[in-house]
Amino acid sequence: MRTDTDVLIAGAGPTGLMLACELRLAGVDVVVVDRLAARTGESRAGGMHARTMEVLDQRGVLDRFLAAGEPRPIGHFSGLWLDFEQFETRHTRSLMLLQSRIERLLEEWAEELGVRVRRSSEVTGIRQDDTGVEAELGAAGATLRARYLVGCDGGRSAVRKLAGIGFPGTAATVTALLGDVELAEPPAEPLFMQRRPAGDFSVIAFEPGWYRVITTEHGRVAGTGEQVTFDELRASLLRIAGTDFGMRSPRWISRFGDAARQAERYREGRVLLAGDAAHIHFPAGGQGLNLGVQDAVNLGWKLAFVVHGHAPDTLLDSYHAERHPVAERVLHNTRAQSALSRPGPQTDALRDVLRSLIRYDDVNRHLGGMITALDIRYDMGDGHPLTGRRVPDADLETADGRTRVHALLHAARPVLLDLGGGGEPGAVAEGWTDRVDVVRARPVADHWPVWPDDEVPAPAALLVRPDGHVAWAASTGTAPDPAALRTALTTWFGPAAVKA
């Protein structure tokens, strides 16, 4: 039976494009289809948090995004400011960068890597068997067959519905309006989540000459399919703020709610879900785009290992096991943030209490780690304190000069770091060197940070997955356990190659 591509991705948004790039870096053939004929220029998301910047840094492309955006010391929980500056990362500021520009940069990178993007191609039917998935594309009856199909096609995902995957959750209780407009009389300073008796509003300058205006009135939930108009946005701002700041020349107007839903499972046979197709939530704290990109980075290397035959198909089950709880927590915290934004004296009092608590480092770090995703630890057993966590971007001395850990991940391959100098880890990994890079180095710092506020002696060795999470580590002063290392290598990267 024919196979047109290894992986078909439905949806050319940030999640789908990031996944396509991850797969191409791993040598997987991939096609991206999107129902739209061209990009709309709309930008619901407005930036990146630290963990997303870290994963782009791990691929060597972060500079492109930094050059296009503006790092700002901005982070919040329902409009209550958080301080990220003391977090253990090279990226302590959020990057203000509109989704439209993020997508453009990701698409340029995808083109460089050889990703094929087909527009005006909507998935309208799927049939899967033991060897692949056949997708119907549009009314003309065209089909495309792939070994795997990934739905990155948004909250109304056709792929999710066609796969029969449920999407339970809570319905919207509020509708917010958003518009990118010019202002004749803009405020002197950016206004973020200004709470008033009638609701709240924000006026944020993203690019010279125009502003993003957001209003939220808690007494109304828009019906499905209702179109929002410029006059409606202006009237809403007048009711809440008492002025429209001379609003004019809208680029686009949209609405969103606080519905929170999550796919029951992220995998149905050879069909998988990522990004908004797997989870939707109130865009509080700016987590949505980041969550989707991180889904893609978790899934991409696993799918590549399965496609290449290095690892069994069951490796894909770990994608749901690791990412479903992460999104579940995001839904939980955005529900809380939505409740905290409601007007009224009771909410005012609750916000005052929470604001006083955020002044404590532990509370700031707890909320900030959750918003930025820096605190994620996947369940990989007890072991070393770093196991399951994102690897610190520590400086290293190698035979070729100084480097850092994240630079070793540019090729999107696993890395076994031998930091003790004995060579034992490399000897254990001989059967995996076709898919795992072995690097001998010396750590520059004697201690490495461990979230939330601890540190440990620099490890003697560690195994880092392509997504930057530590799969195994050995403490300094103890001999690396070869059996534990072999188990980690086999679990994540398949059995050792058979010697000829």
UniProtKB/TrEMBL annotation:
Cofactor: FAD
Keywords noted in UniProt: FAD, Flavoprotein
Ribosomal protein listed as a keyword: no
Domain named FAD-binding: residues: 4-333
GO MF annotation list: FAD binding; oxidoreductase activity, acting on paired donors, with incorporation or reduction of molecular oxygen, NAD(P)H as one donor, and incorporation of one atom of oxygen
Family annotation (Gene3D superfamilies): 3.30.70.2450, 3.40.30.120, FAD/NAD(P)-binding domain
PANTHER family: BINDING MONOOXYGENASE, PUTATIVE (JCVI)-RELATED, TRK SYSTEM POTASSIUM UPTAKE PROTEIN
Protein name: FAD-binding domain-containing protein
Source organism per UniProt: Streptomyces calvus
